[in-house]
Amino acid sequence: MSADVSALQVALPLPLPRLFDYRPPAGVAAAPALVGCRVRVPFGPRELVGVVASVGAAPDGAPELREALACLDDAPLLRGELFESLRWLSRYNHAPLGEVLASALPAALRRGEPLPDTHAWAWRLTEAGATALPGLRAGSRPRRLADLLQASGRDAHALEESVLEALMQDWRGAARSLGKRALVERIAMPASQLAPAPQPGPEANAEQAEAIAAIREAQAGERAGFAALLLDGVTGSGKTEVYLQAIADCLARGRQALVLVPEIGLTPQLLSRFRARLGVPVHATHSGLNDGERARTWAAALRGEARVVVGTRSAVFTPLPEAGLIVIDEEHDGSYKQQDGIRYHARDFALVRGKALGVPVLLGSATPSLESLHNARAGRYAHLRLSRRAGEARPPRVRVLDVRKRPLDAGLSPELLDAAGKAVAAGGQVLVFKNRRGYAPVLLCHDCGWSAQCRRCSTPLQGTPMTVHGGGRRLQCHHCGARQPVPLACPDCASLALQPQGIGTERIEELLARRFDAVPVLRIDRGSTRRRGALEKHLETFGTQPGVLIGTQMLAKGHDLPNLTLVCVVGIDEGLFSADFRAAEKLAQLLIQVAGRAGRADKPGEVLLQTHHPDHPLLQTLIAGGYHAFAEAELLQREAAGFPPFAHLALLRAEAKHVDAPMQFLRAAKDMLSPFVVPSPFEKGGSRGICSSAEDNRQPQQQIPPSPPSPKGGATVIELHGPLPAPMPRRAGMHRAQLLVSAATRRTLHGALDGAIPALYGLPEARKVRWSLDVDPVDL
Ligand code: ADP
Ligand code: ZN
Ligand code: ZN
After folding, report:
1. Which residues bind Zn(2+) 1 (predicted)?
2. What is the CB neighbour count within 10 angstroms for residue 457?
C-alpha cells in the first residue's frame, strides 16, 4: 500500500494506549469530516465500534490495512469542545482515548445504535375520549388524566410526557388503561418548549441577591467567560434558589444549563421543583433510566433541544453546543468520583469543560471540599457566602452526648431515648442516623472470639468480617457480596454462644418500634428501599405526623422533612480514628449535612451526637466553630503533612488471582518511575510526610486544568510510596496492591506519569495483572 492513501485513526475501547489505522469503508472518502463519527471495524475475529480520532496518511510500510465495515453517523457524534475535553481527559488520566470515549458515551451509542429520535412524546385525548370523559368515574386516575388533557387546550388537548410527569403521579398507568379503550393516544411532537408556565420563587434575601448578581456578572458581564464560583451556604440557606435564578438567567440568554447533583440528591422533589420554576422541559439523566432514555437525553442536548439537563456523575459528558452555565450541587460529594474504569472526577471535569466552553461553573455546598476552599482562599474561585438559613428556619442546637460507661440498649443511651420521646410527644419527628446498614456488623463467638470472615476477601493477616443480615439468619460480605447462612455453632469451638456484635439499623429499628409503639417507626436504608421509588413512597406515607425515622446516608440530604425536630447521630466513633487522611473531612461533612436536616421549617431543631470520645478535637472544633473552623484547622494539618490539596497524587493499582503478581508488576512500574524520583529528602533537610518538596504553591492546583505536561519539562521530582498491599488486600478472590505517586505540583506529577505509564503496557509483568491508574484518588 502506498503512503498517500488516506487512513482513519480509530479510537477503540481497548486497554491499549494507541489508535488503530483502518481504510475507510467502501464508498466513503477519508475526509476530515469523518473525525468524531463512529465506525464499525473488524478487530481480530471480532467487530468493534470506535470513534474516528483523526484522518491521515497510512503509515509507510505498514502492513495491509483492514477496511472499516461501516460509518455509523452522518455527522460527527463527538465534535468541538466535548471531543477536545475528552482528549484532554485521556491525557490527564493517562488512559487510552478509546476507553475514555467509551465511558463518556451513553451505552446505546457505545454499542453502535443510531442517534435516537428526540421527538417529544405527548398524550392526546381522542375524540372518543372527549365524548367518553363525563362517563369516567370522578376522582379516578383515568378521569384525572383525561381532565388534565382536556383542560390543557393547547395543541389539541395534548400534554408532553415530561409535563405530565410534573402534574400527576402514576399517569402512565392511567394513560395505559385509557389507551386500551382508544380514549387517548400517544403522539410524537417536534421537541417543543411546552412546559408549565414558570412559577415565581421567593424574593431573594440580601446574600442571595449578591450571589445571583455575581453569577449574572460572570455569565453576561463585561468579563463574561469561564469563572469558578463557590457558593458556600449553610444547609437551607437557599442555594437551590440561587441555582434556579442563575439558570433562569442562562435560559433567558438562550443558552443551555447543565446541573450535576449527587447520586442520592436527584429526587423527584428536586426535579419537580426545577420543572415548576423554570418553564422549560427539564431533562434528567441518571442510573435509574434505561439505555434508550439516557441516549435520548444525550441526543436532545446534542441537538440543542434540551435546555436544562439535570443529572448525576456521568451527566458531565452531556454535549452542550449552546452552553451557558454549569452548576454542581454538593460539590464535596464522594459520588462525583468514578471508582472504576476511567476514574474521572465529575466536578473537576466540569471545571475543565467550563474553561473550554468559556462559561461559569457554580459549585455549591454547605460543606465545601478542602480542595475548593483552598482554591477560594487562593483567589482562584470567587467565594460567595450564604451564612443564614433562608425564610424562618433557625440553625439547630448541637449537643454531644457522652456515653462512656452508660448502659446502651441497641447502642442507644437512655438520654438519647429520653430526648427522642420528648420530641415525639411534642409532635415532631426524630431521625436516628446510623452510618452503617445491616442488622449487626459482625458475628462473634462469645466463648473463643471467633468471628465470621469472608473467605474470598480475607487473608491470614487481615480479615474482612461478614455482616449479619436478614434478621440474623444470613451473613453477607459488604465488599464482594458473598452470602452464606449463619452457622448454628462456632466452627472453632462448637460453642452455641454466637452473638451479633455492634449495632446496625435493623437492631435500632427493633428497639425503637417497641419503645414508640404509638407512632410510626420507619427504617430507610438500601436494604429497605431497593426498588426504585420505594423511598419516595415510604416518606410520603410517613408524612409529617410525629414518628421516628432510622436512616443511613440515604437520608443525609435530598428529601425535605419539614417536621424533623431532632436528629440523633450514633456510631460516629469509627470515623474519628481512621487511617484514611480524608476520613476527618468526610465525617465532618456528614455530621454537618445530617445536622442540617433538623429544623428546616418553622420548628427549631436539635442535634445529639452520641460518642465515646466527647473531647475529640474534631467534634470540639465542629461544635465551637462550625465547618469552616474545622476546615481551617484541617487545611493547616494537610499542609504540614504534605497531603492534598498541598500535593498531587496518583495511585497505581494492580490485582490478580496470583498472590505475587500485583507486587511484581508494581515493583517493575516503580523501576520505570524511579528516574523521576526526588533526590534523597535528607539532602534537603528532611522529609515532610508524603511530599517533601512544597515548591511552587502558586501553580494552578486541583480542578483547574493544568497546561499540558511537557515530557522533558522542568524538574520532574516525585516521591514513590510502596508498593504495598491495598487497604483491603484481597477482594472477590483477587490479591490487590498499590503504588502511590506524589508530587508537589501537577506538572511534576504528570511529567513523570507521561514518561513512565506508556511503557507499563509492554511490561511482561503487566500481562499477569489487571492494573489501573487513578489520578487524584480519593480513597487511598
Ligand atoms: P439549600 O439549597 O441551601 O438547602 P433551598 O434553596 O432548598 O436551600 O432553600 C431552603 C428553603 O428555604 C426552601 O424551602 C426554600 O423555598 C426557602 N427559601 C429559599 N430562599 C428563600 C427566600 N429568599 N425567602 C424565603 N424562603 C426561601
Ligand atoms: Zn468459638
Ligand atoms: Zn467478600
Report:
1. 445, 448, 490, 493
2. 24
239 lines ligand 1 (CB under 6 A): yes
State the DSSP code for 720: E
Ramachandran area for residue 451 (φ above 0: left; ψ -120 to 50: alpha; else beta): beta
Percent helix, strand, coil in the chain, to 5, is 35, 25, 40
Starting from the CA of residue 207, give the closest ligand: 1
Q: Which protein residue's CA is at the shortest distance from atom 4 of ligand 1?
A: 236
Q: Nearest residue CA, atom 6 of ligand 1?
A: 238
| Predicted confidence (pLDDT) per residue in 23-34, tens digit | 999 888 888 889
In this prediction, residues 302-313 reach a mean pLDDT of 93
**What is the spatial distance between Cα 689 and Cα 742, in angstroms, rounded to a whole number?**
11
> pLDDT (tens digit, 9 = 90+) per residue, 236-252?
889 999 999 999 999 99
Which residues, at least 6 apart from 579, have a Cβ–Cβ distance to it below 8 Å?
Answer: 727
In the predicted model, what is the mean pLDDT of the chain? 84
Q: How far from each other are the two terminal CA atoms of the chain, in whole angstroms? A: 50
Question: Is the beta carbon of 596 within 6 A of some atom in ligand 1?
Answer: no
Question: Which grid cell is 621?
Answer: 472544633
In sequence order, what are the beta bridge partners of 725? 737
Which of the ligands is closest to the CA of residue 202? 1
- Residue 250 annotated as binding site: no
Q: What separation in Å is there between the alpha carbon of 480 and the centre of ligand 3?
A: 4
Enter the C-alpha cell of residue 291: 439505555
On the question of pLDDT at 62 being above 80, the answer is no
Q: Which atom of ligand 1 is nearest to the CA of 596?
A: 4
Name residues whose C-beta falls within 8 Å of residue 108's C-beta, 6 or more positions apart in sequence. 116, 291, 292, 294, 295
Sheet strands (E) in 496-636: 498-501, 521-524, 547-551, 564-570, 606-611
245 lines ligand 1 (CB under 6 A): no
265 C-alpha to ligand 1 centroid (Å) = 16
Residue in 569, 534, 533 with CA at minimum distance from that of residue 551: 569
Between CA 14 and CA 650 the distance in angstroms is 22
Q: Are 692 and 685 in contact, with CB atoms under 8 Å apart?
A: no
d(CA 407, CA 393): 35
Three-class DSSP labels, 321-332: CCEEEEEECCCC
**pLDDT attached to residue 38:** 97
Return the bridge partners of 774, or none: 651
> Which ligand is nearest the CA of 447, by number?
2
CA distances (Å), 520 to each of 428, 539, 567, 594, 691, in order? 12, 11, 16, 21, 53
pTM, rounded to two decimals: 0.81
User: Is the beta carbon of 202 within 6 A of some atom in ligand 1?
Assistant: yes
Q: Beginning with the edge strand found earlier in the chain, give each strand of the sheet holding 323-328 in spatial order.
A: 282-285, 308-311, 256-260, 323-328, 360-365, 227-233, 382-386
Distance between Cα 4 and ligand 3 center (Å) = 56
**Which amino acid does the sequence have at 176?**
R
Name the pairing type of β-strands 429-434 and 564-570: parallel
Q: Backbone dihedral region of 776: left (phi > 0), alpha (psi from -120 to 50 degrees) or beta?
A: left
691 is in an annotated binding site: no
* 617-641 helix and 370-377 helix, angle to the nearest 10 degrees: 70
CA distance 329 to 231: 9
457 is annotated as contributing to ligand binding: yes
State yes or no: 445 annotated in a binding site.
Answer: yes
Average pLDDT over residues 158-166: 82
557 lines ligand 1 (CB under 6 A): no
Helix 80-92 and helix 97-104, axial crossing angle in degrees, nearest 10? 130
Q: Do 649 and 742 touch, CB atoms closer than 8 A?
A: yes
Atom in ligand 1 nearest the alpha carbon of residue 244: 6
